[in-house]
Amino acid sequence: MRKATGILFFGLILYTAAFAQSTATPVSENGALRVENGQVVNKNGVPPQLRGISLSWSLWQGRKYWNPAVVNWLAGDFKASIIRASMGVQPDHGYLQEPEKQMQLTVNVVDQAIKDGIYVLIDWHDHNGNQHLEQSKAFFAQMAKKYAGVPNVIYEIWNEPREGISWDTIKTYGIQVIAEIRKYDPDNLIVMGNPNWDQRVDVAAADPITGFKNIAYSFHFYASDPSHQEQLRARADLAIKKGLPLMITEWGVGESNGNGKFDKKLVKHWFKWMEKNKLSWVNWNITDKNETTALLVPGAPDNGGWTDDQLSSAGIYIREKLRDLNK
Predict the structure, then answer these.
(1) DSSP labels for 77-144?
(2) Identified catalytic residue from 156, 160, 180, 255
(3) pTM (whole model) above 0.85
(4) What is the pLDDT of residues 107-139, one digit of tens each?
(5) Of 37, 184, 215, 280, which shows the fewest CB atoms inside 10 Å?
(6) Does residue 160 carry a catalytic annotation?
(7) ω into residue 159 within 30 of 0, thus cis?
């Protein structure tokens, strides 16, 4: 009888361990992210190398995918460990015109990401953030009050400053928005933009923001774009060498206009570079627009559950990569 009880007890231990392993999530495994020695690291002090998907602008046809069912599908089926909520700011029906609607869309996505145990970038998806400083501060103050200390949440405070906006202007904006967030959330990771559509991380590395902790910098590329090859990687390599912590908050398989060629050889080269540098990344984007970087074909359901014939060639490729790399 004692022997049988021991066997049952041992079996219970094995079952409990297997259950705990099966219910582990990216956030439970990595915890709160921070910046340490020029890298974004997890609770164990090592780069988590998160990999995931960006929702499209919370406008136009991509808006229909801003719902909990899609977030849950990306977490469960795509095995995304991070998603990006790219909240449109300036275009019609964006945050400037409809702040409450855009805020609610964002909260719906963020809350589901938290339930699914994955990370989420709250992205101020704006090319002219310096023109909307007060609105940005107000938005991020609300987000920081709501999500302070929630390890899933990352603040991305200015998506892709357009070409011609200086680093001094971007930095001045960033310092003020960061200060506003830090009034309510002293620790969560914040991601800064940089000049020329987040492609001049070398410029930011020469004069980074100081006085705040846990600040990283976004780096964007489009793998098949002729102008996004060795020269762009060299800029990022220089920034990394100087100790600038990077996160790839947007990249696509095509070109920077969303279309162009899907060149798998060039994409493979970029993948090799990201893996070598242990950089977290988010692929652009969940929409059914008829273009190269869209992950869905026109008419794909707005609640997830997509079959292979509802995914574009980019969607099939990225899903396979995520499921393979995020095992």
Answers:
(1) TS--SEEEEEEE-SSTTSTTT-HHHHHHHHHHHHHHHHHHT-EEEEEEE-S-GGGGHHHHHHHHHHHH
(2) 160
(3) yes
(4) 999 999 999 999 999 999 999 999 999 999 999
(5) 37
(6) yes
(7) no
